[in-house]
Write a structure and sequence with these properties.
Elements lengths: L2 H23 L8 H25 L2
Helix pairs in contact: 1-2
């Protein structure tokens, strides 16, 4: 595994932790405010980028 792929895995985990934090704030129904929705979309975009890097590096 390349350093780039390893970094992408860790970055992805940090991003998932950010989503987990948002979910914890919205317990028990997980209804997101407009601000939380925007933040979640931003985080998911970054997560998709990290997944793309992992695919490139591990599944050429």
């Amino acid at each position: 595994m390349s350093k780039r792929a390893a970094d992408a895995v860790f970055q992805g985990l940090y991003l998932l932790t950010d989503i987990r934090g948002i979910l914890r704030e919205t317990v028990p129904h997980h209804r997101l405010s407009a601000e939380q929705r925007a933040e979640t979309e931003k985080i998911l975009g970054k997560l998709e980028k990290q997944i793309s890097i992992i695919r490139e590096e591990l599944l050429p």
